[in-house]
Amino acid sequence: MTIKIITDSTSDLSEQAIKEYGIAVIPCFINLDGKSYLDGVELSRAEFYNRLPGWSNPPTTSAPSPGMFIETYQTAIDDGSTGIFSIHTSDQLSNMINVARIAALSLQSRSSIFTKPHPNSSFRFRPTHHGNRIIS
Q1: What is the pLDDT of residue 74?
Q2: CA angle at residue 21 from 16 to 26, to 5 degrees?
């Protein structure tokens, strides 16, 4: 069984961890001053923090469409994943997990997709190797 780990940009993983463990990251939207930016794609962390003092209103985030999750899940399936572990912020803090669940339901006949909310907003994925498995 090949497991793919998928998360969203609110996990704030380092590029090193993303590459080392082959984690797919779905960007959320950062909304500020009437515009929406894909986190880490259209707006880098450095740019976000550099611009932060000049904003009159605090930024907000929003989840991408289920289509973005479906596309990411489908790519994992097409690449040979027989299971997907999708880790997201708790639904008490974000709608991301709900969108992930909707997307997972649409592909449930193609792969096992487990959506996991993490109740702690300061969650950081720190996997450790155990044989050929990744355990967190």
Answers
A1: 92
A2: 80
